[in-house]
Amino acid sequence: MTDAASLPYRRNVGAMLFNDRGQVLIGRRTDMPGAGGPPSEGTWQCPQGGIDDGEAPEQAVLRELHEEIGTDRARIVAAHPRWLTYDLPPALLGKALGGRYRGQTQQWFALRFTGTDADIRLDAHLPAEFDAWQWVDLATLPDRNVGFKRPIYQTLAQDFAPYAHPAD
């Protein structure tokens, strides 16, 4: 068994992408139970991913959007004032994240989507991270199946609420 205390946190960015109606994009993970089933099943999350060496978080979040949902048609409107950290559940420790990390410390960004739904292409980079996506109301996000990341989404739903409004 891996000792969590001996492992570092992985630096990561998260993208809370708001459409012109003030809804946020979530995708269903392909590597979790329920993928490929009805939209009510599976584990859902916002796009997120690691920060490459020498990469600024602002660059990383736009790169991750392109890699995970096939578009970088977005502009950053805010960065969360704190890095948010989560620990992996014991069953995933030593397995997830290449087995090298105890969890992730994340810089989250609120972004305004500047494209159309046709710009979202889950198959742009393979293997695909998500097999489905949808726009949801921010306030409902923590109540969806976001797995062990629920506390992060509760914080984001509160702190990014000012951006959950129709575009000007």
TrEMBL record:
From the Swiss-Prot or TrEMBL record, what is one GO molecular function term?
Answer: hydrolase activity
What PANTHER family does the annotation carry?
GDP-MANNOSE MANNOSYL HYDROLASE, MUTT_NUDIX FAMILY PROTEIN
Briefly state the protein's biological role.
Answer: Accelerates the degradation of transcripts by removing pyrophosphate from the 5'-end of triphosphorylated RNA, leading to a more labile monophosphorylated state that can stimulate subsequent ribonuclease cleavage.
Output this protein's name: RNA pyrophosphohydrolase
Give the domain of life.
Bacteria
Tell whether GTP-binding is among the UniProt keywords. no
Keywords on record: Hydrolase
PROSITE patterns named in the record: NUDIX, NUDIX_BOX
Annotated motif Nudix box, positions: 49-70
Give the EC class as a word: hydrolase
All copies of the Nudix hydrolase domain together span 8-158
| Keyword Hydrolase attached | yes
What cofactor does its activity depend on? Mn(2+); Mg(2+); a divalent metal cation
Q: What's the gene?
A: rppH
Q: Might you give the EC number(s) for this enzyme?
A: 3.6.1.-
The source organism is Gluconacetobacter sacchari DSM 12717
Q: Pfam families this protein is in?
A: NUDIX
Family of this protein: Belongs to the Nudix hydrolase family. RppH subfamily.
